[in-house]
C-alpha cells in the first residue's frame, strides 16, 4: 500500500490578496509617508535577543541596530512570510523568520530581551491572549516596543473607526480593527507603560481610520519565573 503524503497544516492566517496589497502599500508608505523613520525610532537602542510579532514583509529588519544578536520574526501569513525571508537575507543582523500566531508563540518563556509589535496588534484575533504571550516570552524587565494603529482621541475619528470596524474594514484589510485601545490593552496585560507618543500617518493630507498611531515602550515587571 503506498504511503499517504503528510498533511500540511494550514497557516494560522491566510490573506493572500491583502498580503500582496500590503506588500506594495507598505513599501510606498516607508519611502513616501515617513514610516521608515518611525521604524528607526521604534527599534533604536535595542540589544540582545528580540522577538518580532507579525513581521509582515520584513520592513523592520533593515532598522535593527547592530547590538541586536538575533531576531526571531513570527509571521503567520505565507505570502508575507516569503517576502520576509527575502528581507532577512539582506539584514545586517541575524533574522530567523518562522511561522506562528501571536496567540501561541512557538518559543520558550522568558527567552527574549525585547519584543517588537509593529502595525500588527490591530489584526490579531485575540489581543489579550497575544499580549499575554508576549509577556510570557520576555525576560523580567524586558521591553515591548510598539508602533501601532490605535483608537483616536478625536471623537469624530473615533466614531469613524468604530463604524469601520463593524463593517467591511476588517474583511478587506487583513483583520485590521482600527478602534482598539492599544495602550489600555497593554496595561491590562500587566505591562508597565514607559514613554510613548501619538501621531498620525500621514502627518499631512487625507486622514483614514488607520491614521491615528502610537509609538512607545512598555516593560514586563516581576521576578524571574513569574508567569
What does this structure look like?
- The protein is of the alpha/beta class and 227 residues long.
- It has a single domain, classed as Rossmann fold, CATH 3.40.50.
- Helices cover 32% and strands 23% of the residues.
- It has seven helices and seven strands; from the N terminus they run H-H-E-E-H-E-E-H-E-H-H-H-E-E.
- It has helices at residues 16-32, 35-43, 78-90, 127-137, 155-166, 169-172, 182-188, and strands spanning 48-53, 68-74, 95-98, 112-118, 138-149, 192-200, 212-219.
- It has a seven-stranded mixed β-sheet, sandwiched between helices.
- Strand 4 (112-118), helix 4 (127-137) and strand 5 form a beta-alpha-beta unit.
- Helix 1 packs parallel to helix 3 (78-90).
- The chain is globular and about 40 Å long.
- The model is unreliable at 1-9 (pLDDT under 50).
Amino acid at each position: 500500500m503506498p504511503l499517504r503524503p503528510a498533511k500540511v497544516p494550514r497557516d494560522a492566517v491566510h490573506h493572500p490578496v491583502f498580503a500582496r496589497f500590503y506588500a506594495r502599500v507598505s513599501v510606498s508608505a516607508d519611502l513616501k509617508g515617513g514610516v521608515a523613520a518611525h521604524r528607526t525610532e521604534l527599534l533604536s537602542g535595542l540589544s540582545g535577543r528580540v522577538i518580532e510579532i507579525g513581521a509582515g514583509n520584513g520592513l523592520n529588519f533593515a532598522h535593527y541596530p547592530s547590538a541586536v544578536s538575533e531576531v526571531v520574526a513570527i509571521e503567520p501569513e505565507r505570502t508575507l512570510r516569503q517576502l520576509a525571508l527575502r528581507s532577512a537575507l539582506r539584514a545586517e543582523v541575524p533574522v530567523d523568520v518562522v511561522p506562528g500566531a501571536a496567540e501561541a508563540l512557538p518559543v520558550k518563556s522568558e527567552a527574549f530581551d525585547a519584543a517588537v509589535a509593529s502595525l500588527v496588534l490591530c489584526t490579531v484575533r485575540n489581543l489579550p491572549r497575544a499580549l499575554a504571550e508576549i509577556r510570557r516570552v520576555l525576560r523580567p524587565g524586558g521591553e515591548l516596543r510598539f508602533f501601532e494603529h490605535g483608537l483616536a482621541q478625536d471623537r469624530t475619528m473615533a466614531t469613524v473607526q468604530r463604524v469601520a470596524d463593524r463593517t467591511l474594514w476588517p474583511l478587506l484589510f487583513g483583520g485590521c480593527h482600527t478602534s482598539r485601545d492599544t495602550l489600555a490593552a497593554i496595561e491590562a496585560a500587566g505591562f508597565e507603560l514607559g514613554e510613548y507618543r501619538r501621531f498620525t500617518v500621514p502627518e499631512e493630507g487625507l486622514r483614514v481610520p488607520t491614521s491615528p498611531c502610537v509609538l512607545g515602550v512598555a516593560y514586563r515587571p516581576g521576578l524571574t519565573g513569574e508567569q
